[in-house]
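Sample entry follows:

:::
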Amino acid sequence: MEYRRAAIPAVIGGALLTALLWWAGASVDALRLPGAYQVLGGRVAAQFEHWLTPWSYEPPNSVRFGTGVPGEIGEPAGAEGSRYLSLYETALHIRFAAVFAFFVPGALLLVRRLPPVNGRALATLLALWAWGMVAGTLAVTVSAPWLIASSGHGSYRFLPQLASAISAGRQILVVTALVTAVATVLAARITAKGADPLPRQDVPARSARLAATVATAVIAVSLLVLSYQSVAAAIQTASPADGLLAEPGDLLRQWLLLGAWAGPSGAPLGDWLLYRAIDVLLLALVWWALRTLPGLLTRVTFPAMAAGTVCATVLALLASQVVRVVTDGSSLRWDLMYLSAGLGGGVPAALTWGLIAGIAATATLRATAGGSRETGVPAPVQAPAGSGTARQQP
């Protein structure tokens, strides 16, 4: 699909995702009304407020310090307090601008290489859903330093504060990214009408399986090796520097670990096997998605495979989290809210390892299938002589 056709749905999706997150943040005040507490219940309303606050322009109490009237206890007035409020507003400006700035290029790449036609609509929808969560996470990351500075103690344990800020606001991204993906796919289907034929890429099955296996092995390094209790503890306690960059353990853990597990000694064997089966499910979903992805692309390139692998890892991680919520199974409203708090987590690690796995998968495809200097894709497989048909060239 041409850039001009793919750019329209990408911009529409970016604008919609930004607007939905802004609207969600603006809804925090409604959750504080007495009616909300009566309908939802106090704890559920408080949980929703906790999820939406990272996207709200309403400053928390820590930022409000220094904005009161002269003589008020605990609220000294002055220009210092207004500076903190300005920093907080700047952080939110950067956050919403970054959501749009990160979503549009990724959506443009996905819609162009994975257009929602010829049986690709579901794959495009899922990829854009995952990319919306990635864009939101990156937006929270780049705006976090301003948010930390607005609290007035940015120099104290900066890296742990940064890790905490990055993990905030992820639950609402699951919902808003899904709505955005649906709208983007609908717009892309409209703009794809009248475009040149968008055939699927012809990739040898053996090469696709080998590439998927290599990429899944990369994901397994995080999920099965680094996430093991003793290794994760070593990462958590690592602190090679002093001062502002001390205590990077929380941050490293967030960007490197897709899970956490220990031996069966700390839990019943049945429960341990159940949780390990969920990890196996995650890897199986990643393998299947990456086995299918090269054949769906209109052209196999490093950027397309890297973005697709990141999306596949995020979706597999989300599926495993949903399965955990179901298997933990509680019918109580508050318990379900508590269990659902883990949805959307692990996206930074999925981004890190997804990029590495995508590069490894593309390199494997090129090495095993042979590449074309002109197109940069694996060479197509020719149909056997006498078969009467020939596979379509990309």
Notes: Residues 79-113 form the longest helix (35 residues). Confidence is low (pLDDT under 50) at residues 66-78, 371-394. The chain has 16 helices and no strands.
